[in-house]
Amino acid sequence: MSARLVVLASGVGTTLQAVLDACRDPSFGAEVVAVGTDRFGTGAQERAVAAGIPVFTVRLEDFPRRETFDEATAERIATCDPDLLVLAGYMKILGKQVIGRFRTVNTHPSLLPAFPGAHAIRDALAHGVKVSGVTVHWVDEGVDTGPILAQAAVDVEASDTEETLRSRIQAVERVLYVQTIGRIVRSEEGT
């Protein structure tokens, strides 16, 4: 039996696509049952629709308070009965209404605990680090503070811009994230 994944994404959906591609192989042990977004018109939505995956959108601006947004997001996720919530470039911080209800995994473009937050690549370059990378971690109520599941280093080149470093990190990130999700879902099959 495959684990049920709900993927939340905000952008073009390259990480989502890597997960969708992995799920095509039955030995991966998971299937994406829904994709959620926080805005309309994203590449992630287009990729999900092209793959025949149901899409839902819950927008923060449609709610009077952050708590009601988180409650609505949690309720929408719950209708999909996920075994694992996967954040794939989802650019909203989720509250306890979601995190306390669903086991959630995320990927972040730095070697946490260094450079948490939305500008990790820019921050790494500004600090002049020689090595950056990617971290896959469980999500808790902090910002990029959950227990680390996997990390991979990416060298920072002297000529790197934010865009070039992001591109190299994302290439490593997609592989590491898919491997980690696969390990999580397959280890649970045996329990």
UniProtKB/TrEMBL annotation:
Which molecular-function annotation in GO is an example for this chain? phosphoribosylglycinamide formyltransferase activity
User: What GO biological process term is on the record, naming one?
Assistant: 'de novo' IMP biosynthetic process
What reaction does this enzyme carry out catalytically? N(1)-(5-phospho-beta-D-ribosyl)glycinamide + (6R)-10-formyltetrahydrofolate = N(2)-formyl-N(1)-(5-phospho-beta-D-ribosyl)glycinamide + (6S)-5,6,7,8-tetrahydrofolate + H(+)
PROSITE patterns, alphabetized: GART (PS00373)
Q: State where (6R)-10-formyltetrahydrofolate binds.
A: R66, M91, K92, I93, L94, N106
Q: In which pathway does it act?
A: Purine metabolism; IMP biosynthesis via de novo pathway; N(2)-formyl-N(1)-(5-phospho-D-ribosyl)glycinamide from N(1)-(5-phospho-D-ribosyl)glycinamide (10-formyl THF route): step 1/1
Q: Domain (Formyl transferase N-terminal): give its ranges.
A: 4-181
The EC designation for this entry is 2.1.2.2
Q: Which domain of life is it from?
A: Bacteria
Record-annotated site: Raises pKa of active site His: D144
Gene Ontology cellular-component terms listed: cytosol
- The active site lies at H108 (proton donor)
InterPro entries of this UniProt entry?
Formyl_transf_N, Formyl_transf_N_sf, GART, GART_AS
**What keywords were assigned to this record?**
Purine biosynthesis, Transferase
UniProt lists the family membership as follows:
Belongs to the GART family.
Q: Which PANTHER family match?
A: PHOSPHORIBOSYLGLYCINAMIDE FORMYLTRANSFERASE
Instruction: Briefly state the protein's biological role.
Output: Catalyzes the transfer of a formyl group from 10-formyltetrahydrofolate to 5-phospho-ribosyl-glycinamide (GAR), producing 5-phospho-ribosyl-N-formylglycinamide (FGAR) and tetrahydrofolate.
Q: What is this protein called?
A: Phosphoribosylglycinamide formyltransferase
Report the gene name. Answer: purN
